[in-house]
Design goal:
alpha+beta, four-stranded antiparallel β-sheet, three-stranded antiparallel β-sheet, 9 strands
Length: 172
């Protein structure tokens, strides 16, 4: 009799465990899937001559932006002129100006004996903030200053020369 009772209890335990397992596996299951597109930011420094006109996206390996000013065609002794230009970051990441090269001067105007001409990029300076401005609505103003001495020689009359410089920006 005792064996029978033990066997009944064992069968009852297995039956309860089986029903409990059946109840546990009868639960609902569902899944949710996710996906996303990631895009890198951009930093796109552009420039233009003066304070209006077309924005140009040029690097140092292409033809530079030509600065224009009526004063550039009429340098005289003892003169100081400022030639404006503008920069814009059409990218999505902000940055800063990290380098402004010393202007490289070339041509007869700058090699004429006694023609002392100083050319300096006075703005922007290294450290200037370059915010993201995809529409270029708030440009950064720049200036190149060209100064001749009071003793600018007559031999320089009618001579031409080139001025080239780079402005480099880096994203934050």
């Amino acid at each position: 009799m005792r064996r029978r009772t033990v066997l009944r209890l064992a069968l009852a335990g297995v039956a309860i465990a089986g029903i409990g397992a059946a109840i546990t596996t009868a639960a609902w299951t569902d899944q949710v899937f996710f996906n996303a597109t990631a895009t890198a930011s951009s930093f796109d420094l552009q420039g233009r001559s003066g304070t209006s006109g077309t924005w140009l996206d040029v690097g140092s390996d292409v033809t530079p932006i030509t600065l224009t000013s009526a004063d550039l065609g009429a340098l005289s002794p003892g003169e100081s002129i400022d030639v404006p230009f503008q920069l814009c970051n059409a990218g999505t990441a902000a940055g800063t100006i990290t380098a402004v090269s010393t202007p490289v001067l070339g041509g007869d105007l700058f090699t004429t004996a006694g023609a002392e001409i100083t050319v300096t990029v006075t703005a922007p300076t290294v450290g200037t903030a370059v915010p993201s401005d995809p529409s270029c609505a708030s440009p950064i103003n720049g200036t190149v200053n060209i100064t001749t001495t009071a003793t600018f020689p007559a031999a320089a009359m009618g001579q031409s020369g080139t001025i080239e410089f780079d402005v480099t920006g880096t994203s934050s």
